[in-house]
Design a protein that fits this description.
With 211 residues, the protein is α/β, with parallel strands linked by helices. The protein folds into 2 domains: 120 residues, Periplasmic binding protein-like II (D-Maltodextrin-Binding Protein, domain 2, 3-Layer(aba) Sandwich), CATH 3.40.190.10; 84 residues, 3-Layer(aba) Sandwich (D-Maltodextrin-Binding Protein, domain 2). It is built from 8 helices and 11 strands. The protein has a 6-stranded mixed sheet with strand order 2-3-1-4-11-5. The protein is elongated, with a radius of gyration of 19 Å. The two termini are 32 Å apart. The protein binds 1-O-pyrophosphono-5-O-phosphono-alpha-D-ribofuranose (PRP). 1-O-pyrophosphono-5-O-phosphono-alpha-D-ribofuranose binds next to strand 9 and helix 6.
C-alpha cells in the first residue's frame, strides 16, 4: 500500500480553490464536498487525506509534520519563516502586501512612523531596509480602522482589489511584495514520502501549465 499524503488546506475561499486544483490533478476526495463540519477527509484509493485548518496555521502543521504538504499564502510564509520547503506557486490567491494610509497623509521622516499591521515581521523587515524608524502596533483584524481613528499613521496589509481601502478613504502607497498561494512541504516527509510528494507536485504543476 502506498503512503498517504496528509494535506493541510486553508479553510475558506483559497482552500476551496486549492482543493479544486488537487481534484482536477487526480487527487479527488468527494466526501470533502459534502456539507458538514468535519475537518478531515480521506480517499485511500488516491492516497490523500485532507484537513481544513486556519490559514495562518497551515505552516505550523507542515513545519511540525502533522501535515506532509499544505497550501499557504506567501504572506504567512514570509511572516513566520517556517522551516519548510516551498515546492510550487499555485498562482491563486494573488494579492500584494502594501503600505496604505489616509489620502492626505504626508510622511515626516523626523518622526517615528506608527505602523498598524497583522504582519509585524514583514513590516519591520521592510522599514529596516529603508532605514525608517517605526513603532509597530500589532492588530488582529480590521487594520484599516487604525489610521482612520488615529491609532497609526499607516498600515501594512494585504490589498487584493483595493476595494476595502477605497471604501474607507485610504490609499495604497508602496507595494512591499507580491503574494500568491504556495504548495509547501514538511522537510522530513519530503524525504520519506519523496516519490508521492514529487508526483503530487508534478501533477499539480502540469495541470497549472494546461490552464
Ligand atoms: C484582507 C485585508 C483587507 C482585504 C483587502 O482581509 O486585510 O482587509 O483583504 O481586500 P481588497 O483589496 O480586495 O478589498 P481578509 O479578507 O484576508 O480578512 P482578514 O481581515 O480576516 O484577514
Amino acid at each position: 500500500m502506498k503512503n498517504m499524503i496528509n494535506i493541510a488546506l486553508p479553510k475558506g475561499r483559497l482552500g476551496e480553490k486549492a482543493y479544486a486544483i488537487f481534484e482536477k490533478a487526480g487527487y479527488e476526495c468527494p466526501s470533502i464536498r459534502e456539507e458538514n463540519r468535519k475537518l478531515i477527509f480521506e480517499n485511500p484509493e488516491k492516497g490523500v487525506r485532507y484537513f481544513w485548518v486556519k490559514p495562518s496555521d497551515v505552516v505550523i502543521y507542515v513545519e511540525r509534520g502533522a501535515a506532509d504538504v499544505g497550501i499557504a499564502g506567501k504572506d504567512i510564509i514570509l511572516e513566520y519563516s517556517p522551516n519548510i520547503y516551498e515546492l510550487a506557486d499555485l498562482g491563486i490567491g494573488k494579492c500584494r502586501m502594501a503600505v496604505a494610509c489616509k489620502q492626505d497623509f504626508c510622511d515626516n521622516r523626523e518622526r517615528t512612523l506608527r505602523v498598524a499591521t497583522k504582519f509585524p515581521h514583514i513590516a519591520r523587515t521592510y522599514y529596516n531596509g529603508i532605514s525608517r524608524e517605526i513603532d509597530i502596533i500589532k492588530l488582529n483584524g480590521s487594520i484599516e480602522l487604525a489610521p482612520i481613528l488615529g491609532l497609526s499613521d499607516v498600515i501594512v496589509d494585504i490589498v487584493e482589489t483595493g476595494k476595502t481601502l477605497l471604501e474607507n478613504d485610504l490609499e495604497p502607497r508602496e507595494t512591499i511584495v507580491d503574494i500568491s498561494a504556495r504548495l509547501v512541504a514538511n522537510k522530513v516527509a519530503y524525504k520519506f514520502k519523496n516519490q508521492e510528494i514529487r508526483k503530487l507536485c508534478e501533477d499539480v504543476e502540469a495541470l497549472l501549465r494546461e490552464d
